[in-house]
Amino acid sequence: MDPTPRDIGWIEVITGCMFSGKTEELIRRVRRAMYARQRVVVFKPRIDNRYTDDSVGSHSGQQLRAVRVDHVHQIRAYIQDARVVAIDEAQFMGPELVGLCESLANEGLRVIVAGLDMDYRGVPFEPIPQLLAVSEYITKNLAVCAVCGNPADRSQRLVEGSDRLLVGASDKYEARCRAHWSPDGFELRQQPLPLGVNLAELTD
Ligand code: ADP
Ligand code: MG
Q1: pLDDT band at 80; cut points 50, 70, 90
Q2: Residue 170, phi then psi, degrees to nearest 5
């Protein structure tokens, strides 16, 4: 296991497809920092209206208070004496996020960023690729393919529409492995999982 850095800041990126547990992992890390009595501020883009307004939420119902921002420039004003800054849904934050994360880490803060690595077409979702390049720690999570149960790294859009930005959960997206994912496969229907597993009973 890597030693935890001392007296310096750093960037951690948690990435993967939808339902891969990025937000759960961010919440876990933030809670642990809080147990260590470190001041933590959590941010999310205003675009993400899922769950309650002033919190980040996972698909399994975990929640954590968060500041909603319209733009990266608003983040600094809320940081004050925080030791840890966490940002969820970072793929919606725009390219300026990279510079901000670098500055905060250079100033000695721990920066935890969670976001999608690919959009529904399988195209890298900037600024996550750039953040992966400059971060010290990377965690890439996999979900479970809704068709076959294999590890899933892609987000399958289930409804029509070519906007990159379409916020939704299991009503609009499904986790899929590369064999069952298609960039324009919204007409693909969910098939039963093998071994009698019913995913609908597991999800919200
Ligand atoms: P993310 O932030 O990556 O979209 P979340 O942390 O919000 O993911 O949610 C992860 C949770 O989603 C899992 O712990 C599980 O309860 C639920 N879930 C629903 N569908 C799936 C799936 N196909 N694969 C894995 N987890 C799923
Ligand atoms: Mg999430």
Answers
A1: very high
A2: -70, -10
